[in-house]
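Lab notes, practical 5.
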Amino acid sequence: MESINSVYEFAWLATQQIIVTSDKEAIHIKGFGSGFFFQYRDRTFFVTADHVTHLDDFDAGIRLGKDDYVWVLNNKKSTTELATMLTPIGGIYSFDLLDTNDELSFEIPDMKDISFAIMPDTIKYPFLTHELRIKDQVMVQAGKEKVIIKSECAAELKETDCCLIEGCVRWNVIDGIKLSRCNAIYQDLVLDSVDSDGYYIMKHSNPVVYDDWAGLSGGPVFTDKCRLIGMLIEVSKVNDDKIKVIPIKKITELMDYAIKYEESVLGQTRGNNV
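Output from the prediction step:
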């Protein structure tokens, strides 16, 4: 891989863009978002927010039992021709929290806003990026290889850390085939508080305008030292300066569970074949 010259370039190359559709032909688009590839315990995960992959569930407040189709933009042949730039992501995990002391919890579980897939060995890397330009200066050229984040990059957020998130907003598909998107970089994010779930409430240096952030959900959040501290799941809809970020440790805890589950299933399969 070519060298990476700045945290802006690293964050850009580490952030993937997502399209969610209701059909396997990727014609009927339901939403857009962000995500990232993450290497953990000898596996590669694709990670995003569950409200990106299960938009209808979060709108309804309950699991509806229907999965949509999730696609990552690979940009291999084009950065605007939608049909040529999509890689499907299947086998997505989602998680619900049940309170055994609350009977209602079994009917309406607490949906955790984390989803990921363990990527098969058949997936074809690398994905490529489209151009990142800031004030007429090209920060990252189109066609550069995207980054798979290594677990050694993960860290807990400190009060002294200054963070950033990058990605695409204001998505639009023209005539069903041409993709339009605006690049976004938000820096100067600092820790404001930690909520009752252990999630970071972070404060931006300017008011958070929802439409200027929509599409960044599920994206990785980095310190200015290129350390991955978590994933964006919520921005304010009242134009204050707050966003919510799930710590990466909360995500890897669920990855440990998924690994144990898949190892258990594999062990049962091998036992049945003996």
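Observations recorded by the TA: The helical segments are 7-14, 50-53, 55-60, 103-107, 248-273. Residues 8-256 form a domain with the Thrombin, subunit H fold (CATH 2.40.10.120).
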